[in-house]
Amino acid sequence: MRLIRLLANLGYGSQKDVRAMIRDGRVTDADGKELAVDTRAKAEDVRLDGEALDPGPGMVLMLNKPDGYTCSTADPGRIVYELLPERFMHRNPVLAPVGRLDRDTTGLLLMTDDGALLHRITSPKNHVPKTYECTLARPLKGNEADIFASGDLLLRSETTVLKPAVLEVLDPQRCRLTIVEGRYHQVKRMFAATGNHVETLHRSSLGGVTLGDLAPGKWRLLSPEDVAAIGV
Ligand code: URA
Description:
Elements: H1 3-9, H2 15-23, E1 27-29, E2 46-48, E3 51-52, E4 60-65, E5 69-70, E6 78-79, E7 96-97, E8 105-112, H3 115-122, E9 130-136, H4 144-149, E10 166-171, E11 174-179, H5 186-193, E12 198-206, E13 209-210, E14 219-221, H6 224-230
Helix pairs in contact: 1-2
The protein binds uracil.
């Protein structure tokens, strides 16, 4: 791909900005040799101010989403893109959240510019497990695990029952729930259906990928092994 387009698609600037960066000698090959405006190059062979470029299309990252951020590009409040380098919002193809977490839900959020991967992860057909740590307003009654595992729980205003989900009770008001779908406000609505209310919700894993020691508000790129561990 032509250098200008390559850098512009990675969000480093408009074609005009990028042309100026190249003219200023800021764009080099791996040996530090300045590249000309009309060069054709791959992202991995190019340096900007001596630094490697971000990965090209196919990039997948995970963010430990803090409370108070929305999974959107346009919201009057804080958005998850503010936690990433600014250029990530200007990539082409677009870097998008894989499914959504509510503004007050914390934890593992994947983002990718790979539309096919995004579709595979979010497709209900693929049953990718998602695990949430929940704190509840009221103690569990004791029948929730059976209700969620039954495969016949129908949420209000829906026409199809939920797939079985696994509930692990940690203490009377704390539990871990694994679901294989991603319906709107699903976890909160499941507990509402049992007469309870979710006070805090944190996603700790998706497929075989966990947050590990990634601190709230931090992100990291996923390796090909991590992507394989998603299981789609
Ligand atoms: N279920 C919810 O209710 N909210 C989320 O953010 C994710 C799953």
